């Protein structure tokens, strides 16, 4: 498991867990139990909110504390003194390059993260909210984290507005927690929806954010021949029915993952 001692990342993780736990506490113990204690509707809402919060935390954990796709470092030092600068560090037609910071070869679409100090396969960006890079191995869990946070925000906001209409007379604590939940849901919801759209576009375009930023003018304007969108999504979410893509677990066969990792050892 990974954990970076990056102050910004640690603060963001604490804020994320604090808001999710506050959401769970406020909905269950401040609103549902006092107002809907003997109602089947209250029990149903408690189960739904608890499930969404659990899936959000679990998806965040898989994205934050596991390998995002680090390019393995060579066991022995490699001498790159004979590489000419004007070759743009490309080693073959498959797009392999040299990272002068890691002193290693890296496959196409791998980029160096200055915070993690490692090259990451299909690096999209370094996200402080998970204190980790978003790369080939954890992009699915990052997207699921965004999805479940967005769903939780919409559901909680709708439930709070409903409770304000049905139960207009509330205690001061219920009013305060309701206002805080509404603010959290709106801010968090808008934030994750914007990032979620960017992630979906990066999959359908088969280009990460860094790929787009580092591409030259010709590469950006030249048309791409892309496989069907379903094929591109399966590369990220794995095989099987689409409903299983919502599960924050790995659907790829273990031998496929090990082969994919071993082929990049130098």
From TrEMBL:
Which GO molecular function, any one, fits this protein according to its record? protein-cysteine S-palmitoyltransferase activity
Kindly list the places in or outside the cell where this protein is found, as annotated in its UniProt entry.
Membrane
| One cellular component term from this protein's GO annotations in UniProt | membrane
Question: Which keywords does this chain's UniProt record carry?
Answer: Acyltransferase, Membrane, Transferase, Transmembrane, Transmembrane helix
Superkingdom to which the source organism belongs: Eukaryota
The record's EC number reads 2.3.1.225
- On whether Transmembrane is a keyword of this UniProt record, the answer is yes
Q: Where is the Palmitoyltransferase DHHC domain?
A: 96-207
Any keyword Metal-binding?
no
Catalytic EC class: transferase
Membrane topology qualifier: Multi-pass membrane protein
Q: Which stretches are transmembrane? A: 12-33, 39-58, 141-164, 176-197
Annotated catalysed reactions? L-cysteinyl-[protein] + hexadecanoyl-CoA = S-hexadecanoyl-L-cysteinyl-[protein] + CoA
The entry assigns this protein to a family as follows: Belongs to the DHHC palmitoyltransferase family.
Q: Please give the record's comment on domains.
A: The DHHC domain is required for palmitoyltransferase activity.
Protein name, per record: Palmitoyltransferase
In which organism is this protein found?
A: Adineta steineri
Taxonomic placement: Eukaryota, Metazoa, Spiralia, Gnathifera, Rotifera
């Amino acid at each position: 498991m990974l954990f970076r001692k990056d102050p910004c990342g640690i603060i963001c993780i604490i804020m994320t867990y604090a808001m999710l736990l506050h959401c769970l506490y406020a909905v269950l113990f401040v609103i549902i139990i006092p107002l809907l204690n003997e109602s089947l509707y209250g029990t149903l809402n408690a189960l739904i909110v608890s499930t969404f919060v659990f899936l959000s935390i679990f998806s965040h954990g898989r994205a934050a504390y596991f390998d995002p796709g680090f390019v393995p470092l060579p066991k022995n030092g490699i001498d790159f003194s004979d590489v000419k600068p004007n070759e743009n560090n490309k080693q073959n037609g498959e797009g392999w390059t040299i990272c002068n910071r890691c002193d290693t070869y890296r496959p196409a679409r791998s980029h160096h993260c200055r915070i993690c100090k490692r090259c990451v396969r299909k690096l999209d960006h370094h996200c402080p909210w998970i204190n980790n890079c978003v790369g080939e191995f954890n992009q699915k869990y990052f997207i699921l984290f965004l999805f479940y946070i967005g769903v939780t925000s919409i559901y909680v906001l709708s439930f709070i507005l409903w409770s304000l209409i049905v139960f207009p007379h509330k205690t001061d604590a219920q009013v305060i927690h309701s206002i805080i939940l509404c603010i959290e849901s709106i801010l968090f919801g808008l934030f994750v929806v914007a990032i979620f759209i960017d992630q979906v576009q990066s999959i359908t375009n088969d280009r990460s954010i860094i790929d787009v930023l580092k591409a030259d003018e010709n590469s950006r304007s030249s048309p791409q021949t892309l496989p069907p969108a379903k094929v591109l999504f399966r590369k990220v979410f794995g095989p099987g029915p689409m409903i299983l893509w919502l599960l924050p677990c790995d659907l790829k066969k273990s031998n496929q993952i090990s082969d994919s990792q071993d082929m990049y050892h130098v």
